[in-house]
Design goal:
Length: 997
């Protein structure tokens, strides 16, 4: 009996006998109908079932003093303020009885529009940037109440409305502040619509749905078994091979030394807050809205991160997924593509194609590896359905496709293999006369609907719809019509999105798709199975189309194609070897070889024009090919490759034309390619392997040449040795810039104007960078003379026409050994770190005037940094805001809380380098930054950070958050309630970010 993996395709007809007469008993088809309908019913009911939602109430009285209540989202569900009429009448004009947003105390904080009640003698109400009105209070004793909800804001006197403003004018709340204690009080209910957990009823519906789904699949399996021999969903197990060990070693080595992705910190920061916050929200933007309905794999990462948050541990799942993807590709996909893939060398070709796709894209915490495995699993199930004429594999394919789509919007590509095989699948369904339409429809729709459980596991339908609306209104998405931007980024030279490692698999596989189609067109297919190969290529092309649905357009998302792309690339290489071409063309392979050589010349030149670039810490120690495109003997390999390709075409084509011009020569169209010309398949494979080796060699070199510096390999080794704190263990902090002031030597004359310099919120002695002049000579510290520590001066204020120069000398009054400009484009205050030249013992600052307008810039006097290990200053478990670009490398710090409808107010913030402004979204109301309200309550004090071994580098910035005043900490009253799936607390207001008041 042929296994389904190698079974010949048929038109799907069957000769199953009609059931005998007589009374019918309940068979598997009936069970498929009943259980399929039950699965669908439960899947529909699941999002509408109730969830358990905390109701969080904050109360404040003026006697408590200023209170911090940084809500997230910024507006409460409802708010109520009470104050006596006498307090309003007797207050001095302009007295603030209540503010929910403090006056701006830090210029770096963006404002929010809160509630402001001003007395004397009438009560003026302003909320959400809108003047609600003024109320004259009666002379008698009474109580004024101000309420604000999603539909209206009202002022009531003894319960009687006297002023009403329709619409949603709920104020933003960062706290409660008043000029006087007049007995006023505040009560508000925080918006906790997303902080929900699954209720017992919803959990029961989910259990029934899963049980019904399993029953449906069993019933379909019994139907298949009754109609024909058993069908296996996976290939026959095989013993491990040498190539399997090689792929495993490569993946494990890459796991140890390989790069981070640009979003590893983003995802790590989100999932690590799951245990404390109670749900997975977007802790960096979009008002902390949950990632649902595309987020179930985050729920797996969350408990994984509780074991360890080290980079080594957090990247293990993607490595395991890589092993799973390879097993699916080598054990289930390739054997289905024809007898040509039984050759001994084909697994090695597939391994190279797989590694060229997987390594540059799919190591890390992003969803691409999950989607790549899911899409390949769907392809396997679809091919089993077609080969075995069975319904169960199709149901499994639909189930996998839905689960993969629930990972990320790009997961929709998992439906591509089903669409690619739609014709044989429809033939299969029509031929199954043992299954009527209703059991088929119910069973397949049940499998399709079941992934709803992953999308709404602990969220209600209304909450998910509101999350989607918030994301759409705040923005950040790119429309499908701008899909070309992804390919433009792929061809950008100076951006890691266009790195050589990303160009190679994408461009080569685009060519391979066309080559694979040509290989199976017509007859003489050289051992390739036409149907499966065509479906594979169509699935790959449809996947490219499906990528247009992704809301962002980054080249990183090409990683979802790793499984399908590796299969297509393998098919093309196998089909375009010399022997396969001669079989395919009956010896007339010249024109195909010339066409393929021309295509490879163009694609290869574009690939080799890229640089070996990587994001963040992975790009700290670039190779020569990271600084410049690959070259040879001073020439660009890109140009050399193109020239070589053109010369090959000219020589081979010219030779063929010359021979054809002979009186007895064969026509050019009937000529075969010369044996000395490499087959296009081997050229493409060689290029892919060369680029792959370049990437691996670059990271290996960095790990070996910088053993004491921070690399991912050093991080992994430290984790195994018991230090999982990552980059933090390599950082030093200057806690007191004044402590390292250098001592003066020689004459103490200062001709430059003296001024106080701002060093991260501290004032230290300095000079004005204006008008000209010099400072005294300062003796260098021994660590500065040896080059271990830099000479540091901090610039603050606005630059003007003058320039600042540091002069180094062997002693006071001696000729300068070097003059270094003290300039930087970074935002002020900014440190300038200079390395003293050999032989220097003293340094001074020189101000030189210019012709432009003067500025207000001030430079601190030269100092040597007195450093404290960051791990000592912020011990393990310290709560801090970990900005998303850096969060992945700080596994020992605890992300700041976002729970009970409020954002935390931690003491520390770890930010990216000054050249990276991307973390600003977390503190900007425009982007729905969750920490925009806490930012209004503090001032930031920057503590300079130094990287061990690279003292002139400041890879991250460390800020201490200092409360602008003493705040009362309010303990909320939290009760649980059940909220049905359609229940809504109104819309979350996003327009407040554009309203100031």
């Amino acid at each position: 009996m042929l296994s389904p993996a190698h079974a010949p395709e048929t038109d799907g007809t069957t000769t199953d006998p009609e059931p005998p007469g007589g009374p019918r008993r309940i068979g598997p088809a009936h069970w498929a109908l009943v259980l399929g309908l039950l699965t669908i019913l439960c899947a529909v009911a699941f999002p509408l079932a109730p969830v358990t939602q905390p109701q969080t109430t904050y109360t404040w009285d003026a006697v408590d003093g200023p209170a911090a209540i940084p809500l997230m989202p910024y507006q409460p569900t409802s708010l109520q303020v009470t104050v006596g009429c006498g307090a309003v009448r007797t207050a001095a004009p302009g007295t603030t009885l209540l503010r929910t947003v403090p006056p701006r105390t830090d210029p770096g904080a963006e404002p929010l529009a809160g509630l402001e009640l001003t007395a004397g003698p009438a009560l003026t109400v302003r909320s959400a940037g809108v003047d609600v009105g003024t109320v004259d209070v009666p002379a008698a004793d009474c109580t004024v109440t101000v309420t604000s909800g999603v539909t209206a804001t009202q002022v009531l006197v003894d319960g009687r409305p006297v002023l009403t403003a329709e619409g949603d004018l709920r104020p933003a709340v960062a706290g409660a502040f008043a000029d006087v204690d007049a007995g006023q009080s505040l009560s508000l209910v925080a918006d906790t619509r997303w902080e929900t957990t699954i209720s017992p009823l919803k959990a029961a519906i989910g259990v029934v749905c899963l049980a019904a789904l399993v029953g449906t699949l069993i019933a379909l399996a019994r139907c298949d078994r009754a109609a024909r021999p058993p069908v296996r969903l996976v290939a026959t197990p095989r013993r491990p091979r040498v190539v399997d060990a090689a792929v495993t070693l490569v993946l494990l080595g890459w796991w140890w030394i390989g790069p981070v992705t640009v979003d590893d910190g983003y995802i790590a920061g989100i999932v690590r807050g799951r245990a404390a916050d109670g749900f997975i929200g977007n802790g960096y933007r979009w008002l902390n809205a949950p990632e649902a309905p595309f987020s179930w794999f985050y729920e797996l990462y969350a408990p994984w991160s509780e074991v360890s948050a080290s980079t080594l541990w957090m990247r293990l799942p993607s490595t395991l997924l890589g092993l799973g993807c390879w097993l699916l590709l080598s054990r289930a996909v390739l054997p289905r593509l024809g007898v040509a893939f039984r050759r001994r060398g084909v697994p090695w070709i597939a391994a190279a194609a797989f590694a060229s796709w997987w390594l540059p894209f799919n190591l890390g915490m992003r969803p691409e590896p999950w989607v790549a495995v899911g899409a390949l699993a769907v392809l396997v199930a679809v091919e089993r359905a077609v080969a075995g004429r069975a319904v169960l594999p199709l149901a499994v394919a639909l189930l996998f496709a839905g689960a993969t789509t629930a990972v990320t919007p790009g997961g929709i590509i998992a439906y591509a293999p089903i669409l690619a095989a739609v014709l044989p699948l429809v033939r299969l369904l029509r031929a199954r006369r043992d299954l009527h339409v209703l059991p088929l429809v119910a069973g397949l729709l049940g499998a399709t609907a079941a992934p709803v459980l992953l999308m709404f596991a602990d969220q209600s339908l209304a909450a998910v719809l509101e999350s989607v609306r918030v994301r759409r209104e705040i923005g950040g998405d790119v429309p499908w019509s701008q899909e070309y931007e992804r390919y433009a980024l792929l061809l950008t030279v100076d951006n890691f999105q266009g790195a050589i490692g990303r160009r190679a698999p994408v461009l080569l596989t685009l060519l391979a798709a066309a080559a694979a189609v040509w290989s199976v067109a017509g007859r003489n297919r050289a051992g390739l199975a036409a149907g499966p190969v065509r479906r594979l290529v169509v699935a790959f092309v449809l996947s490219l189309v499906c990528l247009t649905a992704t809301p962002t357009k980054w080249t990183q998302q090409f990683g979802v194609l790793a499984g399908l792309g590796a299969a297509v690339l393998t098919v093309a290489v196998v089909g375009w070897t010399t022997s396969a071409l001669r079989v395919r063309t009956r010896g007339r392979s010249l024109l195909p070889v010339l066409a393929a050589t021309a295509a490879l010349a163009a694609a290869g030149s574009l690939i080799l024009a890229g640089r070996d670039l990587w994001p963040y810490v992975s790009g700290w120690y670039p190779t020569e090919w990271g600084l410049h495109p690959p070259g040879l003997v001073g020439r660009s390999l890109s140009s050399l490759w193109l020239v070589a390709g053109v010369l090959t075409i000219v020589v081979v084509g010219g030779t063929a034309v010359w021979r054809a011009a002979a009186p007895s020569g064969p026509p050019v169209t009937r000529a075969g390619a010369p044996r000395r010309v490499p087959a296009p398949g081997w050229i493409a494979l060689g290029l892919a392997v060369a680029v792959l080796l370049l990437q691996v060699a670059g990271f290996t070199r960095s790990a070996l040449e910088h053993p004491g510096a921070y690399t991912l390999a050093a991080d992994a080794a430290a984790t195994v040795a018991g230090d999982p704190c990552g980059l933090q263990s390599h950082l030093l902090v200057e806690t007191d810039p004044g402590a390292g002031q250098l001592t003066t030597v020689g004459p103490l004359t200062t001709t430059a104007p003296t001024a106080a310099a701002d060093v991260g919120g501290r004032l230290v002695p300095g000079i004005a960078v204006a008008g000209g002049g010099v400072t005294p000579w300062f003796a260098l510290d021994p660590a500065q003379r040896s080059g271990d520590l830099p000479v540091v001066t901090t610039l603050s204020g606005t630059p003007g026409d003058a320039t600042l120069v540091a002069e180094f000398a062997a002693g006071p009054g001696q000729p300068p050994l070097a003059r270094q400009d003290v300039t930087t484009d970074a935002a002020r205050p900014a440190d300038v770190r200079l390395v003293a030249p050999a032989g220097a013992a003293v340094v001074r600052l020189v101000v030189e005037t210019g012709d432009g307008p003067p500025g207000t810039e001030v430079a601190s006097l030269p100092r040597v940094p007195r450093l404290t290990p960051m791990a000592t200053l912020l011990p393990r478990g310290t709560s801090a805001i970990l900005d998303w670009p850096v969060a992945f490398t700080f596994g020992c710090l605890q992300p700041a809380l976002l729970r009970d409808g409020s954002a935390g107010l931690p003491e520390w913030r770890v930010a990216p380098a000054a050249t990276d402004p991307s973390a600003g979204i977390t503190y900007s109301p425009t982007y729905g930054g969750p920490f925009a309200a806490p930012r209004l309550l503090v001032t930031e004090q920057r503590l300079p950070v130094y990287l061990a071994g690279e003292p002139v580098s400041e890879p991250v910035r460390l800020y201490r958050w200092v409360a602008a005043q003493d705040f009362t900490t309010l303990a909320p009253v939290v009760t649980d309630r059940d909220a049905w799936g359609w229940h809504s607390d109104g819309r979350v207001r996003t327009a407040s970010a554009r309203t100031t008041g």
